[in-house]
Each structure stands twice: as structure tokens, then as C-alpha cells.
Amino acid sequence: MVILKVKKVNNKAKIPRIATEGSACFDISTVEDVMVSRGGLIKVHTGLAVEIPKGYCLEIYPRSGIASNGVIIPNSPAIIDSDYRGELIINMYGLFVDRIVAFGAGSRIAQAKLVKLVPTSIKVVSKLDDTDRGDGGFGSTGLK
Q: How many helices (H) and strands (E) does the chain have?
């Protein structure tokens, strides 16, 4: 079991929890009333700071019910590094919103999961191994 330490930096903050045994993520809530309009980008305070274990990161995603209303997290998944100790602040953007979408303080606005990192080193080479696809980019596999 890996432990994610959570600190309230605002008394209104809700401690994240996993809703069901089968849930992949835990919910993150806002500590303030917020409104998102079409084309509007807002920074939403969660009132939480975390201590992510070394060798892990925290990925933040939109909740499906919020995304279905046209509100997204534009840098999803948002990556929180293990050495960051500030408040979790989530960018929200009104992409397909045809009205103002309001979230009251305490509303669940995002979901997050702890992800184990694969130790990686970078090696500069002059040639890469060949594949059937090669350097074929967008649409090159014939799937549309």
C-alpha cells in the first residue's frame, strides 16, 4: 500500500476519497463557488496540498459528469510532481458550454490517481529501429 499524504490548506477542503471498491481514481472538490462559461478558463482552488511519494506522480482528470457538460481540464491529465508542495489548483475550461455551469463550494470537480513512474534515461542515437509504420503520422494506420 502506498500512502499519499494530504494537508488541508483551507478549512473548507474535503479530503479526497475513493467512492467505490472498483473506482480507479479519487475525487477532488473545490473550496469555492465557481462558474465556467464558454471559452472561460478559471483556476479552481481545492484547499489541499499533497506529499506524493518519490517515484510517483499524481494525475488529475475531469470527472465524466462534468466533461459531459462541456467543461474540461485543458491540460488533462494534469501532472503533479512528487516535489511540489503547494495547493492543488485545477484549470477548468468551458469548451462546449452553451450556458454558465456553476459548481458550489464542496462540489467534486476532478478525479486523481497516483501513478508509479518508470525510471527512464535518455540516450541519443543516430538511427532508430525500423517498423512497418515507420514515420507515418496522423491517419497513417488507415483508422479514421
A: 1, 10
What are the DSSP calls for the chain, one per residue?
Answer: ----EEEESSTTPPPP---STT-SSEEEE-SS-EEE-BT-EEEEEEEEEEEPPTTEEEEEEE-HHHHTTTEE-TTSSEEE-TT--SEEEEEEEESS-SS-EEE-TT-EEEEEEEEEPPP------S-----SSTT--TTTTS--
- The neighbour count for residue 76, using CB atoms within 10 Å, is 16
Q: Residue 67: phi, psi to the nearest 5? A: -65, -35
Region 109-113: mean pLDDT is 96
CA pair distance 67, 28, nearest whole angstrom: 15
Q: Look at residue 54 and give its three-state secondary structure.
A: coil
* Domains of the chain, each with CATH number or no CATH: 5-116 (2.70.40.10)
Confidence band, pLDDT 50/70/90 cuts, at residue 144 = low
